[in-house]
Amino acid sequence: MRLVLTTGEPAGVGPELAVAAARWFADWRAGRVAAPDGMRVPAGTDLRLSLIGDAELLRSRGGEFAGLAGVDVEPVSLRMPAPAGQLVLANSDYVIETLDRAIALVDAGAADAIVTAPVHKGIINQAGLSFSGHTEYLQERAGVPRVVMMLVGGGLRVALVTTHLPLRAVPDAITGPLLAEIIHILDADLRKRFGIARPSIAVCGLNPHAGEGGYLGREEIEVIEPALAALRAEGIALHGPFPADTLFVPSIVAPYDAVLAMYHDQGLPVLKHASFGLGVNITLGLPYVRTSVDHGTALDLAGTGRADVGSLLQAISTAVAMVDPSLSSQS
Ligand SMILES: NC(=O)c1ccc[n+]([C@@H]2O[C@H](COP(=O)([O-])OP(=O)(O)OC[C@H]3O[C@@H](n4cnc5c(N)ncnc54)[C@H](O)[C@@H]3O)[C@@H](O)[C@H]2O)c1
Ligand SMILES: N[C@H](C(=O)O)[C@H](O)COP(=O)(O)O
C-alpha cells in the first residue's frame, strides 16, 4: 500500500510535521511503535509513504529524512523561498501542484490514499485561484457530484451537510436533494470504510431547539423532516432532527455511529473541543481514501518545533485502516 502525503502550505507547520511523521512511519511499519490510537501494523507490512513537496524545504524544517525505510519524496519545487510563518503569494501554485501530483498518483493507481497537511485557503484565493478547501477541490477534480466532510475524534464521528460556506448562505443551501445525497454517501461509506453493518445516524436541526415546533424557524418542518422520512423509508437508520446543543451531551450522543451537523461551526467546534490534535478529517464519497489533520497551518508555530504531530499520525493510520481494514483489526 502506498500513501501520498501532501506537505501543505510551505510557510506553515506542514513541512516539519510531515518529516516528523515520516520518522514515526518508518518505525510504525517496522512494528516498533503504535499510532496514537494504539493501532499497530505487523512488521514487514508493505507500506510506503511518499512526501509530496520541496525536498530542501522539508529538510530545512524537519531535518534529514534520507534512508528512512518505506519513505520517499515526490519532488515539487517551491516557486520562491518560504520563510516559516510568512505567507508568500507565489507559492500558492506550489501548494496546488502538490495536490495535483497526489491526485495524478491515485488516478493512475500508483497510490492508494491521499493524506494532506494543512493549506492556507486565504493566500491561495489571494493568488487568484478559487479554493474553498481540499474537500471541494478534490471533489471537483474527481468529477463526483458530491462528497462529505467527516471529522473523527474523541469517540465522535461528525459529518457536515454544508462545508466552507458563509453562514448567511447556509439555510438556502440545505435542501431535500442535498440532504439525500449527503446521507446516502455517509451511510454507504460508514458501511464500506468503517465496517458498520447498519449505521445509526443522528441528525442535528438547523435552528435553536430544532426550530421549537416552527416558532424558531421552519427548516426542520419544511425541509429536514420530510427528507429524513423519505430516507428512512429506504431503510437508512436516521434519528432526529435533534436540537444540536443537547445532542452532543456525551450520554445522548453515545448510541449513534455518527452525527450529521448542518454546518461547519455547528459540528466541528464540538469535535475539536473533544479531540484537537488527535482528530482526523476524512472526505467520504471520493473514489479513493483521503484523510487530513484536524488543524490548520498554525503560522504562529511554524519553524518552532512546537507543533503537535499527533493528528497527522492519526490521519496516516486512519488512511491505512480505511484502505485495508484487516490491518486495523490486528492492532
Ligand atoms: N486541513 C487543512 O488544510 C486546514 C484545516 C483547518 C484550517 N486550515 C487553514 O489554516 C489556516 C489557519 O487557520 P486557523 O488559525 O483557524 O487554525 P489553526 O489550526 O492553524 O490554528 C488554531 C490554533 O491552534 C494551534 N495549532 C494548530 N495546529 C497545531 C498543532 N499541530 N500543534 C499545536 N497547536 C496547533 C495554533 O497555534 C493556533 O493557536 C486557515 O487558512 C484555515 O483555513 C486548513
Ligand atoms: N474544515 C476543516 C477544519 O476546520 O478542520 C478544514 O478547513 C480543512 O478542510 P479541507 O480538508 O477541506 O481543506
Automatic annotation (TrEMBL):
What is the name listed in the Swiss-Prot or TrEMBL entry for this protein?
Answer: 4-hydroxythreonine-4-phosphate dehydrogenase
Please list every transmembrane segment annotated in the UniProt record, as residue ranges.
Answer: none
Q: What is its EC number?
A: 1.1.1.262
Q: Where in the cell is the protein located? A: Cytoplasm
**What is the purpose of this protein?**
Catalyzes the NAD(P)-dependent oxidation of 4-(phosphooxy)-L-threonine (HTP) into 2-amino-3-oxo-4-(phosphooxy)butyric acid which spontaneously decarboxylates to form 3-amino-2-oxopropyl phosphate (AHAP).
- Where does the chain bind a divalent metal cation? 164, 209, 264
Q: Which residues bind substrate?
A: 134-135, 272, 281, 290
What family does this belong to? Belongs to the PdxA family.
Q: Which NCBIfam families match?
A: pdxA
Q: How is the cofactor bound?
A: Binds 1 divalent metal cation per subunit. Can use ions such as Zn(2+), Mg(2+) or Co(2+).
Pathway per its UniProt entry is:
Cofactor biosynthesis; pyridoxine 5'-phosphate biosynthesis; pyridoxine 5'-phosphate from D-erythrose 4-phosphate: step 4/5
Keywords attached to this Swiss-Prot or TrEMBL record, sorted alphabetically, are: Cobalt, Cytoplasm, Magnesium, Metal-binding, NAD, NADP, Oxidoreductase, Pyridoxine biosynthesis, Zinc
Q: Which HAMAP family match?
A: PdxA
- Whether Zinc counts among this entry's keywords is yes
What does this protein need as cofactor? Zn(2+); Mg(2+); Co(2+)
Molecular function per GO: 4-hydroxythreonine-4-phosphate dehydrogenase activity; cobalt ion binding; magnesium ion binding; NAD binding; zinc ion binding
GO biological process assignments: pyridoxal phosphate biosynthetic process; pyridoxine biosynthetic process
Q: Which InterPro entries match?
A: PdxA (IPR037510), PdxA_fam (IPR005255)
